Amino acid sequence: MGHRISDIASALGAEAVGNTSLEVEGAAEPAVAGPDQLALAMSPKFAEGLVAGSARAAMIVEGMDWQALGLEGAIIVKRPRFAMAGLTSALDAGPIIHDGIHPTAVIEAGAEIGEGAAIGAFVVIGHGAKIGENARIAAHTSVAEGAVIGEDALIHAGVRIGARVRIGDRVIIQPGAVIGGDGFSFVTPEKSQVETARESLGKSDGAVAPQSWTRIHSLGTVVIGDDVEIGANAAIDRGTVANTEIGSGTKIDNLVHIGHNCRIGRDCLLCGQVGFAGSSVVGDRVVLAGQCGVSDNIEIGSDVVAAGASKIYSNVGAGRMIMGGPAVKMETHIEMYKALRRLPRLAKTVAALQKAVSKTDG
Predict the structure, then answer these.
(1) What are the domain boundaries of the chain?
(2) Is residue 177's pLDDT more than 70?
(3) What pLDDT is recorded for position 202?
(4) How far is the C-alpha of 302 from the C-alpha of 7, rounded, in Å?
(5) Active-site option among 156, 257, 260, 333
(6) Is 89:105 a contact under the CB 8 Å cutoff?
């Protein structure tokens, strides 16, 4: 179905100009946009692409001359990426999950399915699980016993939700994520080499005795707030005794691992391949870029921003912007990196000085 650009502009709180009754069926980059698509030309650098494409309407920013660009109509936005969020939300059809319960789904006795929920093919829902109203669960998902999924949640195909996990309203979980697996907790009967290394900071040279590992079982679960999004193949472990917790509004990217007992605050952004060891505590609105690593039992204050591949080994105060491994303030890391790049030149200078001093002594 088509969307009039006047309706799109109204939904975005933007301005529509020209032939506002034009209808579009989707969006595309300017150079490949067809006559029934909305070209996304939200920067002057994309103007040339409009000439190559055949779009009649485009989303542009203030200051761009839509008539000079050969458009019949346009939507003018102030903050392009924010406008993109609203546009893509309106145009995204999402997965097709037919209403009701698919005949191949297995719903165990005692499970509760809320009104308007859609359960896809080969879904398994365990005893005592509760599915909220209008929740949608795609094919081959398993929801273990006692788990709770809130209203309007969207669980994509192949997700695994463990026993007694609690998931809030409007949560989105991408394919392959595993929520509520056992935590990685093992112990040895005697002091392990790992404990010795921590205590001595690697200085111990004592004899190493044979060791075997005994599992510490996870008795807690995972509690996820409202409006959380979890990426494909992410893994969130249940707590050992206390629960692992994810605050409302937090967004978790693909391949993120959150260990047992971690507590993540509200509205955090955890990018791809971020990894948390157990029992880490994170405040609100924390942003960790891709491949950041967080050591166990670390506390990160609210509003911290960590650059990609930062390695966090110690507590971080609220509001800091950090970088590097080990992570330090961004400005400090930049100075350290500059000094590192100077090392070859410095080594040559020192060698020349040594040679000069040696000749003088002679």
Answers:
(1) 3-91
(2) yes
(3) 78
(4) 38
(5) 260
(6) no
